[in-house]
Amino acid sequence: MGRLLALLAAIVVAAALAWATERPPEPQPASAPPAEFSAERAMTDVAEIAREPHPMGSPANLRVRDYLLGRMTALGLQPQVRADDALASREVRGETWAYGGRVENLVGVLPGRDRTLPAVALMAHYDSVPGSPGAADDAAGVAAALEIVRAIKAQGEPVRDVMVVITDGEESGLLGANAFFARDPLARRIGLVLNMESRGMAGRVQMFQTSSENGELIDLLRRTADRPSSSSLSVFVYEIMPNDTDLTESNRAGVPGLNYAFIGRQFDYHAATATPANMDRGTLQDLGDQALSTGRSAAFSPTLPAKAPNAVYSQIFGDVILAYPAWAGWLVLAAAGGLLALGVVRARRMEAFPWLGAARGAGGLLSAVLGAAAVLHFARRATGAEFGFIEQRVLLAQVSRWEAAVFLLGLGFVLWAASDMSRGKRKIALVPVAAGLGSSLFGGFDAVGLGLGLAAGVACFLTFGRPASRAGAWTGVLALTFLAAVGAQIAAPAAAYSFAWPLLLAGLGAAATAMATRRGLAANALLALLAALGLAWIFGLAHLLFLGLDMPELLGLPFWSAAVLLWPLAQPEEGAPPARLVGPIAVAAGLAVLVWVSLDTPWTGRHPQATQVLYHLDQDTGRAARLSLLDRTPWTDRVLAADGGAAAKRVHWLYRQPHDAAQARPIALPAAAVTLVLQADGTLLLTAQPPSGARTVTLRLNPNTRSASSRWGR
Length: 714
What we know:
3 domains, seven-stranded mixed sheet, alpha+beta, 22 helices, 14% strand, Aminopeptidase
């Protein structure tokens, strides 16, 4: 019973610590000291900027531009409008997309004592997407930049210039940042960029991206940041994702930088509900506190971070960031391996166990991780939500319930596998196999789910034929994790610590309790304490992974690290009924919450269901149609059929997936003027003149020879 209580205490304490760590700070009032950041002061700007949607080129965006010019003038920044015609391109599913437009960046400078030193730039964008007021994306970033420069000015004259760069056209393809860093001479004066973004409306702020060779940048962050939240794992993951922000353009120009963002309440991202009233003021405070502390230190420093080898790092608790060069990861692994070896030697002296038991432990860990991934993959399919940002809104509207289901199912199966190691029963293999087969019941045949389920089932069948002792099984768990950490250190040292640090804590517990053979209050308390500290940190990583990627099966990796710490507490004595029921009960609870998520309709006034109807006029044929790219609702059905047409599935040239469309009455509208002229030098000049009132022009070209966009004119 002692180990069961220690297990439950470790999980509860870890969850409480993780929750406290992930809570934003309290917002500071408008009466806060002048040199401090105040979310309430910044919210005045957020409310004005986000009064309405203001996409690039719209009258509303011009209103925001003029407001910001007034605010920057009042701060003594002598702002300039840096207008440019911007053109950029990117590869999208094998096609080249070019996009451009007229951007109006705003740049102001708080002068420093030495104007020859490279400036520190505070960067955010002021345009929003159509249909969204953009209170967080990126009115919050703009307001934070203004409040930060006000706080720096209140402290005194900085050593170097502080430049405020408020870009235009970020939502249209980073156009403002592209124009600024590619052609604006003011960009050459910048030595450090702090960019502020968002993909939600709440939660802790993450410093999630850096420029390359970030060793000294991370040292600056470690020394100066106020309650930072960042890790080299998040930087590593973001680098392999297709996402971009304005920092992409500054990185491309070789300017060092740090990127801050928050992703809680993603339901509001690019949505009509992204209003100032729904903005979490604590999150705005967190953004300002983190960026101000580091930006102020850089502004008052005679030197800025130089390029240095990338650091391996993560925040622990509070203001503590543990960082070291990549090569030092081998020292961490050496320490973990030494503790593991010491624990094994001492355990075999106290209670000899066959090496086959260690092999079973390694197999049990593999079964637990694969099984958790299979169960979580099944859970995502069972929600019935399609994949895609708009499609998963039904989950984002009830994200807390969905996350609870994911954690109960994933961690529950890991605990179940650990508890069954003492029984040697193979029935557990049925769970991942059923999950793998069940995945194909939702949305058609699912090869990934079936593969995960069968792989986990085979691993369970081969592993759980006979019981293994706790010391033997934990030896196998730690040994397999050590090998995985070595592989990660070779392939991705920036991410290897996510295995190595929990392994180091577990190795300490293994050596001190002789691989958990010692009984009594002291041994259980030590294992529970180490598990609670490690789990609180792991739960934070898992939470970020859950929010950042709609792939819950990947949570099998942080649950692997959790298993390393929980295994000696989760594996009971053979046949101990209460202890071995923790995992099955957690899985059953997770299934219950999953049913709730799948069957309950979450749409409310605060979380409205997304609808969209487009009107398409083919001016070549004179035919028109209404089309909807989202799930059918009674409202969309009425709008689609407004002209008497029957809705049916069709394919539009701009979209790859079939959609609902109905014939509509043509409207007499002026057409765009498109000409293609062969020039004397053999090049082709394509000119597109949109009709009056058009906001965007999209051209799809299918050339029979290789082509490239070379010049943009207005």
